């Protein structure tokens, strides 16, 4: 028997709102079946949600996560999916490295502005 999940099961497991899950469904990332008004999520939906949330933590856009999910092909050993994921990881690392440089420069500029401001303040109070 295949394991299924309710929207509240997934919401609790992944600590997201049911609204978030419905959003991913509306975006075509999850495809629950229905029993009347009740949504029934498959194990594949659960895995997709896990991948979406992991992608979000890694800084991937929703469209990037969707593209990665669509590349799922166990018959090929998921070679294309894994190759694409490695490219995305490399891009994200590069972006983060640049952001670190930008942050360090901003900290230097803030330090310099603070020194000038304190000197001006000190001179004004003499």
UniProtKB/TrEMBL annotation:
Q: Which InterPro entries match?
A: DNA-bd_dom_put_sf (IPR009061), MerR-type_HTH_dom (IPR000551), MerR_fam (IPR047057)
Which SUPFAM superfamilies does the entry mention? Putative DNA-binding domain
Q: Which GO terms describe its molecular function?
A: DNA binding
Per the record, the coiled-coil ranges are 79-123
Task: State the UniProt keywords alphabetically.
Answer: Coiled coil, DNA-binding
**What's the superkingdom here?**
Bacteria
What Pfam families does the annotation carry? Answer: MerR_1
According to the UniProt entry, where is the signal peptide?
none
What region holds the HTH merR-type domain?
A: 4-71
Which PROSITE patterns does the record match to this protein?
Answer: HTH_MERR_2 (PS50937)
What protein name does the entry list? MerR family DNA-binding transcriptional regulator
Q: Which organism is it from?
A: Alkalimarinus alittae
């Amino acid at each position: 028997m295949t394991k299924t999940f309710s929207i509240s099961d997934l919401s609790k497991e992944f600590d997201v709102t049911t609204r978030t899950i419905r959003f991913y469904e509306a975006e075509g990332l999850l495809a629950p079946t229905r029993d009347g008004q009740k949504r029934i999520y498959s194990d594949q939906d659960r895995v997709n949600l896990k991948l979406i949330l992991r992608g979000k933590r890694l800084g991937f856009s929703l469209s990037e996560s969707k593209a990665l999910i669509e590349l799922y092909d166990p018959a090929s050993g998921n070679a294309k999916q894994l190759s694409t994921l490695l490219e995305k990881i490399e891009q994200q690392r590069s972006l983060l490295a640049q952001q670190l440089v930008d942050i360090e420069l901003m900290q230097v500029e803030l330090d310099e502005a603070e020194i000038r401001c304190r000197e001006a303040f000190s001179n004004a109070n003499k």
